[in-house]
Amino acid sequence: MRRVLIVFVFGLLLSAYPLVAFAQTDDTPVEPVDSEPVEFVPRYHTVAEGESLYFIATFYGVTQEAMEIANNIIDPTLLFVGQQLLIPAADGEIVPANYAPRFGENLDIIAEGFGATPTEIIRENYLLSPDSVIGGQPLRVFSRTGSSTPGEAPGLGHIVRPGETLATVSAKYGLTQAAIMQANSLTDDLRVHVGQRLRIPTGSETNYTAIPGLWQELSFSNFPIRQGDTVAVYVEYLEPGTPFGRITSPAGELIPIRFLPQDEGFTALIGFDAFSEPGNWKLIIGGEGDARPWDTFETDFVVGSAGFGTQYIPIDDDQQLRNTENTFLNAIFIDSNPEPLWTDVFRIPITGTVSAGYGDARSYNNGPIYAFHSGIDFRGNIGTPIFSPAEGVVVFADELGLRGNALIVDHGMGVMTGYYHLNSFNVAVGDTVEPLQQIATGGDTGLSTGPHLHWDLRIWGKAVHPTRWLERLFP
Which long-range contacts (CB under 8 A, 24 or more apart) does 340-343 make? Predict the structure, then answer.
């Protein structure tokens, strides 16, 4: 216990004083060292025919007891061929970690990834119950794997159907009944019930998520979520039908989720703009089933602050004109083609340096703050070529009071990009555009302090951080 406290306190001191520098007291040359710490990567072992837990522990230089704790093994004789075992740190070191749970992770999965126990996590975080885990809300965990990063919990989810038994389920996946019992902490009566969700401990790359009812899969694309992020939601249900859902902000704002068929399920995009309220949000998803309504799924998740600042713009702004213009454009932003038109990661629309980033609140002539910078400003001369970042259809090309000559491209699935303060248009409303096709030239029209391009990206009207779309393919 004393060693655990020393490690924990030392870790806190390091995190509290990240910028401390130590003075050189003499002129003795110092050998260069690598300042980046080497991260311990958790090791896994796949059980082979004839191997025992004692043999595996001895091979890796750890104790059998440590293996049992790290893998939540109750009966060490119930190993099965193909089972993945987490190998804890050889010296038994306990590493304090702060971990933000991903969507669908419960205490059992989190504890398994760190070689901890659900009871320990509940105690350390003063949780009221095992169901108190909120997606994106940090938990303090004492890791026994030697790493502050959790190992994955591979496996598939299986919903027990009428007529299925533990024997038929295990035979379907080529596993023993004991293997499924251990993965699901089942008792030895060998009974399962219709609608029960089982974790199938396969060696697949799929990570198991614990979700209730007849939901086959329900996942968010990224955690933790911050202001300005784009999130993709994917759902599958055991019975046919059509999903619906919404998210609710801490202040009670309701944002509908618009699903589109994808693969065996449905997907949707959700945008969190720079003024999204940090705190606990709620997700509610249900469905209109062909035979009966789908089960309603509810969960809380956290939206964190992105730490945006404030820009002070030395020109006057017409707030009434801005509100009128926003209302006009919002009607365009939410009238999107339901099908996605893009096929690759978005490209940057202009060659130039950034003069103003996304998200900062704005004060005009030291007036009150009522808006944030909805996109990115790029420096450029009048006439600088501007290109389409992806496939789409032009839905607006005209002059506006604040944004000047404005162009809007619909990329489908609620995704639209806007180009403002333009000099001229190279396309017209209704035109289909391809990636890197020139669509306009830069200018200095509307409310502007000089020639530049303002580029923003909307998800069903919510202005999100455009650079996220330059980094990965959505959904």
Answer: 340/260, 340/411, 340/412, 340/413, 340/415, 340/475, 341/390, 341/391, 341/392, 341/393, 341/410, 341/411, 341/412, 342/390, 342/391, 342/392, 342/411, 342/412, 342/415, 343/390, 343/391
